[in-house]
Every structure is written in structure tokens, then in C-alpha cells.
Amino acid sequence: MNKTVIVTGATGAIGFAIAHKIASLKNWDVVLAARNTQKGEAAVEKIIKQTGNKNVKLVIADLSLKKDIDKLLKEWQGPLNVLINNAAITPIKRKENSEGIEMQWALNVLGYWRMIEGFSAILSESAKTEYSRIVNVASFWAGGLDLNDVEFKTDFTITMQHIDSPNSPIECSVLFLKNS
Ligand SMILES: NC(=O)c1ccc[n+]([C@@H]2O[C@H](COP(=O)([O-])OP(=O)(O)OC[C@H]3O[C@@H](n4cnc5c(N)ncnc54)[C@H](OP(=O)(O)O)[C@@H]3O)[C@@H](O)[C@H]2O)c1
Predict the structure, then answer these.
(1) Which of 44, 112, 113, 135 has the greatest CB tally within 10 Å of its CB?
(2) Which class for 151: exposed (0-12), middle (13-18), buried (19 or more C-beta within 10 A)?
(3) CATH of domain 3-179
(4) Does the C-beta of 58 come closer than 6 Å to ligand 1?
(5) What is the whole-number distance in angstroms between the Cα of residue 1 and the centre of ligand 1?
(6) Residue 12 in contact with residue 20, Cβ under 8 Å?
(7) How far is the CA of 106 from the centre of ligand 1 (A)?
(8) Per residue in 120-171, pLDDT tens?
């Protein structure tokens, strides 16, 4: 039976490369998560064409938004073996999403966390018969996260937020493992 992987940020450089590589392996169903339909469809088409794997699909979600992740989880059908959280941003200016949350915190941290939490039951089920994995892609330059100002309300500089936020997926992974 095929195994299933979901790759977020699969229209970007690293996410596309990950999705492409897995699709080229035998017995994998690959689901690309993208926020932009046009870019997502183009990525799916390219991967199918280049790998010959027809089991490549697209789901649309702005992963900075709770409502989009909730919808994705509600509509998800079937098993999942591997979740690859990769979609992340490093914005130059502080910006909030339509839910009023600072974008980087919303996507790079809450987005990863919500995907992990939301898919954990399905992943645990897969682990009983096959295996399951969660992969959180993060920056090597990760530093300490200021828990008193996770949305950069008092200090938003490109250096600060680059150092701070990419670390959070790593902290997320550690926290999740400690709690599981
Ligand atoms: N590039 C590096 O040197 C480097 C180094 C260390 C770690 N990383 C990590 O690698 C990962 C990917 O980086 P990359 O260089 O491949 O970045 P990238 O090319 O900029 O791709 C980012 C991806 O995230 C998606 N995305 C952005 N905002 C989103 C949202 N609100 N909802 C859903 N998807 C969203 C983008 O979609 P759109 O196509 O619609 O914009 C794109 O597919 C990140 O976690 C980054 O921290 C990168």
C-alpha cells in the first residue's frame, strides 16, 4: 500500500524539492499544501510530468490562518504517514494576518503547531501499521525566542525576528515530543 506525505510550502524552493524527490520514489502519494491555487497547480503538474507519479495532489490553505488549517483537517480523508512542515516566511516589516496575529508567529510557529496537533491522531494511527514521521524544517540560525513578545510587538527588526522565529519550529518539535 502507498504511503502518504503532505508537504507545506511546496510551491517554494525547498518544499518543491522535497515533494519532487518523494514523488520520484516508489509507492508514495504526495500532497502539496499551497496557499496559491495557480502556483500549486503548476507545481503538481510539473512533479507529475517529471516523476511520472500520478498520485500527486494539491490542497489549498493559508497556513497562517487557523480557519484554513481547521478546514484542511476537516476535509482530510485517508491516512497520513509523514507531515513535512516547511512553509515559513521572514518578512521585512511587521504584518498581521486577517485573524489579527503577527504573520511570522502565525505561520512559522502556530501553523506548524496546529498541523502537528491536528494530524497527530491520524499519524499515530499510521504508526500502528506502517510508520509515521513529523519533519519540521527550520533555520540553522535559530536563536532564543522571546516568550514575552512572540508577536514582535515591542521590537521588530529583521535581525531579531530572523534569529528568533525560525527557532520556534525546533522548540515546537521538542515540546511536542516531551508531551507525547
Ligand atoms: N532558503 C534558505 O536558505 C533556508 C535556510 C534555512 C532554513 N530554511 C527554511 O526552509 C523552509 C523553506 O524555505 P524556502 O527557502 O524554500 O522558502 P520559499 O522559497 O520562500 O518558500 C516558502 C513557501 O512557503 C509558502 N508560504 C508562505 N506563506 C504561506 C502561508 N501563509 N500559507 C501557506 N504557505 C505559505 C510559500 O508559498 P507562495 O509560493 O505562495 O509564496 C512557499 O511555498 C522554511 O521553513 C525556511 O525557514 C530556508
Answers:
(1) 112
(2) middle
(3) 3.40.50.720
(4) no
(5) 31
(6) no
(7) 14
(8) 999 999 999 888 999 999 876 655 667 788 888 887 665 555 555 545 666 6
pTM score, whole prediction = 0.91
Task: Give burial (CB, 10 Å; 0-12/13-18/19+) of 65.
Answer: buried
Does residue 110 have its Cβ closer than 6 Å to ligand 1? no
Distances in Å between the Cα of 58 and the Cα atoms of 87, 94, 134, 140 are 15, 29, 19, 29
Using the mean position of ligand 1's atoms as its centre, give its distance from the Cα of residue 123 in Å: 23
Tell me, what amino acid is at 96? E
What phi, psi does 3 have (nearest 5°)?
-100, 155
Of 14, 71, 109, best ligand 1 pocket probe by most atoms within 8 Å of the beta carbon: 14
Q: Of the ranges 40-44, 110-114, 160-164, which one carries the lowest mean pLDDT score?
A: 160-164
Q: Using a pLDDT cut of 70, give the percent of the chain over it.
A: 83
Q: Is 4 in the pocket of ligand 1 (CB under 6 A)?
A: no
> Residue of the nearest CA to atom 5 in ligand 1?
139
Residue 88 per-residue DSSP state: -
